[in-house]
Specification:
By secondary structure, the protein is α+β, with helices and mostly antiparallel strands. The protein has helices spanning about 10-15, 40-50, 70-85, 160-180, 200-210, 305-315, 440-455; strands at about 25-30, 60-65, 90, 105-110, 115-120, 135-140, 150-155, 190-195, 215, 260-265, 275, 280, 320-325, 330-335, 340, 345-355, 365-375, 375-380, 380-385, 390-400, 405-415, 425-435. The strands form 4 sheets. Strands 1, 2, 3, 4, 11, 12 and 13 form a 7-stranded mixed β-sheet that branches. Strands 5-6-7-8-10-9 form a 6-stranded mixed β-sheet, with helices on one face. A 5-stranded mixed β-sheet has the order 15-22-21-17-19, with no helix packed on it. Helix 2 (about 40-50) packs across helix 3 (about 70-85).
C-alpha cells in the first residue's frame, strides 16, 4: 500500500442519518359509527390545515363509536388510502368488549409510526364501564423504544346524573391505574369522548390528580364547558341542530366532550412534546353565529365545504394537536491520511447535525451533544443544533509529537431526550513518520542517479 495516499473510509462510512419523519399530527374523532359522506373531506382537510406555519398529514387517529375494527375502522382506512395511496394507513385490530354502544379504535400512518402493542381493559356491565378502554403503544419511525408513546382511546359513559357520573369515575379510575403502572416518565395521550360538562366532575379530577400517570390539559382551560360563552371554540358536540343521518345527536355546538389530555412528559419541550398553539377543535374557531347551540356551518373555522362535511360526517368534530419528535443525531469524520510527518499539524474535522426530517423547526427537539476523544487525539466540544440548524464542525487534533503507529476514538454523544443515534463512535488510526534529513535526502538522490548511469553504460 502507498502510505502517502489518503483514505476516505471515515467520511464515507461513518455518516449516521435517520428516515424518521418529524412532527406528529394526532387526531381524536368520535365518528358516530361512520364513515359516511364527508368523512374523507374532513380527514384530508385536517392534513391540509396549516398550524404554526405548516401542514402535516395525519399520523394517528384515536377513534370512538366504531362498530368493529374490521368494519367501520377499516372503512376509514380505505378512505385514507384512497387519498394517499395503498398501504399508507393501517388500523389496530383489537376490539374491546362493549355493552353495544360502539368501541374505541385506532388508525395510524405506516410511514411515520409503528403499532407496537394494543391492550383492552376495564369491566363492562350495567354498573361499570359501558365499553372497554383501548391502550395503544406506538413508536415513531426511525427511533428506538425510548421514543415509544401510548394513546388511550376512551368513550366514557354518556348523560348526566349521579349514576352516570359514578360509572365515568369507574372508567377513569381503571385508566389511571393502568397508566400509573406504566411508571414515571411515560409519554401518554388520553384521547376520547369524555361526555363531561365541567372540569369539576370527579372522573376529570381522577385523571388529573398528582402521581405517576397524572394527565394535564395542554391548553390549561378548566371550567364549565356546557352551554355557556366560556371558550366556545372548545365545543366539539354537536355540529348540527337538525339531524342529517339517522341517530345523529343534535343540539348544536354546546359541549366540550372530546379531549386530548397528556402526561406531563409531553409538556416539557424535551423529546416528544406537544407543540404549543396546535390543540384545537377542528373547524371551530369560536365564530359560531351564537355562543351556544349553533350549527358548525354558521362559523368560519374552515371552508364552507369542510364545515358542511363536518355536519354530515358525525355528531362530534375532531380534536387535533401536533407533537414534536426527538432529535436525530448525525455525524461524520473527514478523511485522515494514513501517514503524517513528525511534528506536523494535523487534524480531523467532525461534522455533527440534527438530522430530524422536519418541515418546520418546531417539528423536533434540539440536539444537545458532546464530542470527546481518546488515545492519540485531543479535543472536547459541547454544543447544540436545532432542527434545520445546518450542523456544526469541530476540529480534532492528531498527536504527531512522536514516531510510530497512533490510534484513538472520536465519540459523539447526545443527552437529548429519546434521541435517535445517541452514541456514535469513530475509530481513528495513522502513523507518524520521520522527516528525511536534507543531507540524507541528497545522498539518496545521488545514489539513484549513479545507479541509473551505471545501468545505462552496461
Amino acid at each position: 500500500m502507498n502510505r502517502s495516499k489518503f483514505v476516505l473510509t471515515l467520511a464515507a462510512a461513518c455518516l449516521f442519518t435517520s428516515n424518521a419523519s418529524a412532527q406528529l399530527r394526532i387526531v381524536d374523532y368520535n365518528t358516530a359509527r361512520g364513515p359516511r359522506t364527508g368523512t374523507d373531506t374532513v380527514l384530508q382537510a385536517i392534513s391540509d390545515e396549516v398550524i404554526n406555519g405548516f401542514a402535516k398529514q395525519i399520523d394517528v387517529i384515536a377513534l370512538q363509536e366504531q362498530t368493529s375494527s374490521a368494519t367501520t375502522t377499516l372503512g376509514i382506512v380505505n378512505l385514507l388510502n384512497g387519498i394517499y395511496g395503498a398501504g399508507t394507513y393501517d388500523r389496530a385490530t383489537l376490539d374491546g368488549a362493549t355493552s353495544g354502544a360502539g368501541r374505541p379504535g385506532l388508525i395510524y400512518n405506516t410511514n411515520t409510526v409503528s403499532l407496537i402493542g394494543q391492550t383492552a381493559f376495564g369491566v363492562v356491565n350495567t354498573s361499570a364501564q359501558a365499553r372497554q378502554t383501548l391502550r395503544y403503544q406506538l413508536r415513531p419511525t426511525g427511533y428506538d423504544s425510548s421514543a415509544d408513546f401510548y394513546v388511550y382511546s376512551n368513550h366514557y359513559k354518556a348523560s348526566t346524573g349521579a349514576t352516570n357520573e359514578a360509572r365515568r369515575q369507574i372508567e377513569a379510575a381503571a385508566l389511571r391505574a393502568d397508566l400509573d403502572a406504566l411508571g414515571q416518565g411515560t409519554h401518554a395521550i388520553l384521547a376520547g369522548d369524555y361526555n363531561i360538562q365541567s372540569s369539576s366532575e370527579q372522573m376529570y379530577q381522577t385523571l388529573t390528580a398528582a402521581g405517576d400517570g397524572q394527565a394535564l390539559d395542554p391548553i390549561n382551560m378548566p371550567g364549565i364547558w356546557h352551554n355557556n360563552a366560556f371558550m366556545p371554540e372548545l365545543f366539539t358536540q354537536s355540529p348540527v341542530a337538525v339531524a342529517r343521518f339517522p341517530g345523529q345527536i343534535t343540539g348544536g355546538m354546546d359541549d366540550r366532550f372530546d379531549f386530548q389530555l397528556t402526561t406531563g412528559e409531553f409538556l416539557d419541550n424535551e423529546g416528544l412534546s406537544y407543540i404549543s398553539g396546535s390543540y384545537h377543535a377542528f373547524g371551530n374557531n369560536g365564530t359560531l353565529s351564537s355562543c351556544c347551540n349553533a350549527e358548525i356551518t354558521s362559523g368560519t373555522g374552515a371552508s364552507p365545504a369542510v364545515l358542511d362535511a363536518l355536519a354530515n360526517a358525525s355528531d362530534h368534530i375532531p380534536v387535533v394537536a401536533d407533537y414534536q419528535l426527538p432529535a436525530v443525531s448525525s455525524a461524520s469524520v473527514s478523511a485522515i491520511p494514513l501517514t503524517v510527518q513528525l511534528g506536523s499539524v494535523q487534524s480531523a474535522l467532525v461534522s455533527v447535525a440534527n438530522a430530524a426530517s422536519v418541515i418546520s423547526l418546531l417539528g423536533a427537539d434540539e440536539l444537545d451533544y458532546t464530542v470527546s476523544v481518546t488515545g492519540d487525539l485531543a479535543g472536547f466540544f459541547s454544543d447544540l443544533d436545532a432542527p434545520l440548524g445546518g450542523g456544526n464542525s469541530h476540529s480534532i487534533s492528531l498527536d504527531t509529537s512522536t514516531l510510530g503507529l497512533k490510534s484513538g476514538t472520536i465519540t459523539v454523544a447526545s443527552s437529548s431526550q429519546s434521541v435517535a443515534n445517541p452514541l456514535l463512535t469513530f475509530p481513528v488510526s495513522f502513523e507518524v513518520v520521520a522527516i528525511p534529513e536534507p543531507a540524507t535526502l541528497a545522498m539518496s538522490l545521488f545514489g539513484c542517479i549513479a545507479l541509473v548511469a551505471t545501468r545505462r553504460r552496461r
